[in-house]
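Fill in residues.
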């Protein structure tokens, strides 16, 4: 609701046949909607100001998903499932329903409540492109920067200084294995969930943004190569 008002999508005065008064609209909040008026900080008519609430929306969704992940894991632990599969299935359902709702609720509102294809296309283009850029930045560029900073190399050098052995090959092997063993495990579930959410964008709203499929193919290829690199250089290798 906050995002809808800040992006200027809720405008009762534009449809007086449906909304006689501004307060008749259930999601209209004048205090928030004024930020999207012409000349204000989130001017919906501006070519760049209109993207500010989109960035805020994506950041808020990311934060909420991280918080809910902890909540979902705690709730699933309390359920005390008999098997690991039952535990994982329950966690998957909780996280998917929450994150799918976060991702699609505004799009469904614009498509089936407002019935405005122009607003739907604008929101889909903004959210999909920003989220794709965010994924490429976090999943591909950030691990590369961390690896280039030489975290493992620094740790390896420290381990060599602490090790007193005449066999240099044994030192290299043992220290390298120690460094690799201390790496973070590769999280597969988040990648699968992101792919599923992306598939929903492409399939559910293809008519509003046909180019989304081609962007998704390109982004998935880049992320596929980045994941292969992370498995061998950044994360703990799968067992």
């Amino acid at each position: 609701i906050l995002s809808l008002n800040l992006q200027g999508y809720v405008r009762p005065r534009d449809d007086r046949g449906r909304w006689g008064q501004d307060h008749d609209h259930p999601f209209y909040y004048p205090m928030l909607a004024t930020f999207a008026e012409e000349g204000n900080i989130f001017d919906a008519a501006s070519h760049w100001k209109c993207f500010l609430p989109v960035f805020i929306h994506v950041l808020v969704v990311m934060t909420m998903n991280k918080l809910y992940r902890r909540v979902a894991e705690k709730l699933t632990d309390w359920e005390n499932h008999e098997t690991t599969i039952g535990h994982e299935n329950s966690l998957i359902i909780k996280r998917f329903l929450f994150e799918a709702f976060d991702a699609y609720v505004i799009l469904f509102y614009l498509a089936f409540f407002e019935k405005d294809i122009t607003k739907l296309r604008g929101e889909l283009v903004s959210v999909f492109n920003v989220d794709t850029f965010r994924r490429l930045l976090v999943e591909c560029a950030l691990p590369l920067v961390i690896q280039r900073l030489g975290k493992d190399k620094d740790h390896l050098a420290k381990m060599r200084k602490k090790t007193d052995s005449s066999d240099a090959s044994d030192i290299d092997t043992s220290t390298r294995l120690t460094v690799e063993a201390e790496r973070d495990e590769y999280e597969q579930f988040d990648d699968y969930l992101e792919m599923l959410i992306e598939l929903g964008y492409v399939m559910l709203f293809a008519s509003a943004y046909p180019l989304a499929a081609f962007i998704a193919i390109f982004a998935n290829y880049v992320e596929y190569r980045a994941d292969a690199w992370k498995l061998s250089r950044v994360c703990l290798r799968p067992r």
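The CA atoms of residues 74 and 91 lie 10 Å apart.
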